[in-house]
Amino acid sequence: MMIPTRIHGLIDYGVAALLGGLAMAPGLPRPVRRTLGAAAAYHTAYSLLTDYEGGVTPALSMRQHLALDAMGGAALIGAGLSLRRASEADRALLVGLGTIELAVVALSSNAPRRGPGQGSMTGRLLGHEAAHHGHQAAYHPLDTPKPAAEGVWVVDSILPNPMGAVLGVRMTVIRLPDGGLLLHSPTRFTYALKRELERLGPIRHLVAPNIAHWTFLKEWQDHLPETVSWAAPGLRDRAQVRRSGVRLDHDLFATTPAEWGGAIEVVPVPGAAGFQEMAMFHAPTRTLVLTDLVMNLEPPKVPLPLRPLAWLFGMLAPDGMPPPYLRAVVKRRHAEAAEAAARLIALEPERVVFAHGRWFETNGTEQLRRSLRWLFTVGKRGAGGPARVEPLKPDGHGGVTLAAEPL
């Protein structure tokens, strides 16, 4: 079965976004980032000019589009083979992306059903089938609190993007010792959800835990103006946040706010480019709440054409990791981030909740350790092979150390 042109359009813009994100990853060398940035711009430009569901102006036929796809894939492979000064991993990334693009070209139909002028581009790309998958991407029931532990609930929802596709996203709700509720990474507002939550307790605190998870905050503030908003450091300085009109009352730091009654420990996980994720540990239930530090996507909930990319980048369950660009950003402050991650593991959570994918309902510590393996990779191989991370051990000073030995 050939990939329909509508799905191909979703892949086009998804790949362009991926390439653009990788192009901004400070962990990659400049020649590689330039190559990825040029590929992202090239891909977006001719996609907009194609007579198919993802086009704006019908200047190119789908056959011409596929030919340009093939040229782009070949160029990425050529760049990967020719950048002699780049590391093997960086060159393999370029070759892998180019190979996947050629495979998509070979499997794609060249007969679009709709094109520019036939409704909005988002509507053309979305279609009935895509809308159905959007709901399959999340964990039902949506927009309703589901118990995770005593005084802890999760709310699964969906996050549309401009291309009409959707991503499953999750909010965590914690009841504080005073009976008030804290909403971690709020999802979309609905009156029904507000009523359900208020049956559990008064909503008093809203938390934007990193620079990506804040977009629904203002909706909740508009309907609950008395709530107090807490944000990851630096979020308030971003231009998009300032333009949005969202209110950020306090920045979060390693010191837990007194208003939370001592039930939650905050562990900042730093990165470069303004990224910092504020992990939260609910001690009474041993529940660790993350956002994007772990992404554990189940294959059936990922669109079929995108599953190879998700697999290639290690984002699939059961031991999923965040996308490569986020790993690169965090690794720019590797020592500090690894120390923070070790602290999270040392807390020995029973369960780990995060924003995307199947969260760890049991055996949280071991599953977390495996999903954070990218932070604990030891740089050199021993005589017996690649190094591995051993279990955390007490350091004699109330902390922990990571030991490594050859496999």
From TrEMBL:
Protein's recorded name: DUF4336 domain-containing protein
Region (Disordered): 385-407
